[in-house]
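TEACHING EXERCISE
Course module: macromolecular assemblies
Task: Read the component lines below, then compare them to the predicted structure of the full complex.
Student: A.B.
Group: 4
Components provided:
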Amino acid sequence: MRAVLSAVTFLPVVGAALIFVLPRRWEGLVKVTALATSLVTFAVSVPLFTRFDASLSAYQFVEQRAWMPTLGVSYHLGVDGISLLLVLLTTFLMPLVLLSSWHSIERRWKEFAITMLLLETGMLGVFVALDLFLFYVFWEAMLIPMYLIIGIWGGPNRVYAAVKFILYTLSGSLLMLVAILALYFLHGAATGAYTFDLPVLVRYVLPAGRAQNLMFLAFALAFAIKVPMWPFHTWLPDAHTEAPTPGSVILAGVLLKMGTYGFLRFCLPLFPQATMTFAPWMFALAVIGIIYGAWVSTVQADMKKLVAYSSVSHLGFVVLGLFTLNPQGMVGAIIQMVNHGLSTGALFLIVGMLYERRHTRLIADYGGLWSVVPALSAIFLIVTLSSIGLPGLNGFVGEFLILVGAFQVHRPAAVLATTGIIFAAVYLLWMYQRVIFGEVTHEENRRLPDLSLREWVILVPVLVFIVWIGVYPVAFTGKTEASVQALITQVQTKAAASAAMVAR
Amino acid sequence: MTDSILLPVVSLRVIAPAAVLAVTGFVLMLLDLLPPRQRREHMAFVGLAGVAAALVATVLLWGSEESGFQGMVVLDNFTLFLTLVIGYATGLVLLLSIDYLQRLGMETGEFYILVLFAATGMVVMAGANDLIVVFLGLETMSLALYVLAGIFRTRIEAGEASMKYFLLGAFASGFFLYGIALIYGATGSTNFNKIGAAVAAGAARDPLLLIGFGLLLVGFGFKISAVPFHMWTADVYEGAPTSVTAFIATGSKAAAFAALVRVLLTAMRPVQGEWAWLFWGLAVLSMTLGNVVAIAQQNLKRMLAYSSIAHVGYMLIGIVAGGSLGNGGVLFYLLVYTFTTAGAFGVILLLERGGEEAVRLGDTAGLAVRHPLAALALSVFLLSLVGIPPTAGFVGKFYLFGAAVRSGYIWLAVIGVLNSAVAAYYYLRVIVSMYMREPEGTPTVLAPSFAGALALVVALWGVIQLGIMPAPIFDLAQSAVLPLLR
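Instructor-supplied answer key:
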């Protein structure tokens, strides 16, 4: 099991290199190589889950090697209960996404495959890096593949969306870089040890005050843009609408989680006092995001835009959960990150499948599909219900836990957030009704083919997890509880310590 | 001063790399007389051999610390590190020039001779410990570059570039020389160490000295093209042959930075508090104006010209921050910038159609389809200029911003960071054009020669290597500034 994390992280690069040397005209082989690479990556990542010791809160499968010793930068990888599920979510979604691109990506498959695999490495690196420098490298490096995917394979307005995406996220993360450097030097000056190592930096107690608050805000801005939290969300609908289906799935499924993950991994443990100070504000923004996202979703005519805005709403729940700073809310937030990846990812996949058939995403162009494509409609229904949070399916577990956590902390916020669930039912079911039920309103829709074998293979694994998490969530939440509990303890003791430092 | 009438002891060891380059230049002058008259390739290869020999000498001398010519020239790791940078720049420029000159039908022997002499001047500046020697190196370099900028006599832009560069450069030299005179008047010496001692002893309050320093900085500001002394940059970069542009952007900047850092750290260190804020302003102005104006450029050479002004701003951050981290960061960044910029100009040079120097943004449309490898190479260079990991540009900026944060110049780092985001816009525009737009007009045919391809591969290798494994080189850069910080 040594170097298993390195293997998982860099296997996609190996695959990308293989594809790079393949001739362009062997497109079939390119596709198979890409799919095989992602499947192998997934297979290698499964033991992470099965062998993960859920009773420990510590990082597991740790690897550490010197990289730039004079600066205190090391190649340090590890997973705990917080990142474990996200790593698996990434490796799980990637083969499905590649499979969904089989026909929907019509040109330059070779470049597409390379870009997707490099993107996978970037995302995995973000989740497993335990060194701030290394983390930042992955965080930034991942932007370029996503930018290319939107910009090359996207819709008519793709260039605008791609540039907006990268400028937004870049400006956020560059300020984080300054904060990382500030933390590095503050820690170095205080302890004499100059290091970017996260576990070391986490042990350092910053005095409460301006420096800690500013660093928290710089980190939080980078993450809030990525989540995206209202009012930093405006890049998301553009990026989502213009991105090709695989891009949207990865964007919603994994990329947005990097923001919420960042809060958990960096903001909370590094700046606990500031976290406490700003938690009410984060609560407020989260609730605004939940309601705003839901309202805007309701009026969308384009299914993809609707799902995109619903992400703003759903991720508001995640942010709400993780700033409750209690076990229910935070475990709920983590499981909801996975849920959103599965449910929204599946919604984008289904919208993509409809688009492949009819070349439109407007709700008004559909209607009465149940009689034409019953299998697709049935799966669409299950996914829609899971996104709404129907008990027995995955979404319910996460939202329930988050709201339980939120009620303990701030009742009005929790009440307002709950309305978001009601709105979700409104906009999702209303969309579903207009697309699937009733009479066939457009003649072209009468002869649409139902799910192909390839599409079954894409959707069924997602359904399995949607039901599994819904029925037996402990299999997943159990892995995170110890780490979450340790994080909460750490935040509380450190916050008390830094408050004491300023009191002196 | 009993030895004042003795001739200075000539220590060849101290000036070995510069001497090798100069001798190569003279050998080339002789070679130029020999047939064949029409093919001058062999001269480039002899020049490359000279550069290689100079680099070998540099490596062999690494670690030595001595001075010669009565303290006028210093050989230390600082000199040697910059000699390496200048050597790389010269080598890349020679490699890029061979088929470029052939393609444009402008192949002349004097081109290579002038490149070698310019390089000699640059290396002399890197080791100068005396204002007179700085001036000597500066003029050797500049005169050669003035001619190189206008070597394509038939083109109007070339004439304009050469004339502008020469006239404004002559002004700058005048300021510089006047500054030297005033400093000499105030302190009685042109030697950096003696000036430093005089300043420390109280000469800092002498207005003559302050005006002298001010004039000196104007001269340096011109050579590194820091705002507000940048006016010539875009026109010269645009009009000069592209491989010469690459040389002006990399080698001449490295040399000027070398002399500037040494003056600041030896002669002017006692008044560091006074000049740090001045460079703070220059850094902010250069970054901001360079980046903002670059956005408006449609011509790639002009865009890179303004972007180079912005990069000077980033390097000035390192000077403001000071210490081994800040100044080491400047040296490291110069090396990174040399690889990156030479590489970017190298790709642009491939895109130029016969005789026409204007590579516009539209000309790159769809390049990824027509020539994927060239597009990939240019993308890597541009991403390095943006500062995206895992390229060298990211590490370079990381060190510079890190130094600023460490020295407490948080706002300077924040301004630098915001500038990087602005810069991303115009660099990415080129990538957008290459990968996301359809080709328009008659496509350029690219057929890089072996030498040109080699230059690009070396530059790419540098950008990636310094991005993934920067530690060894950065440690060298940091140790190179230590002699100046004692």
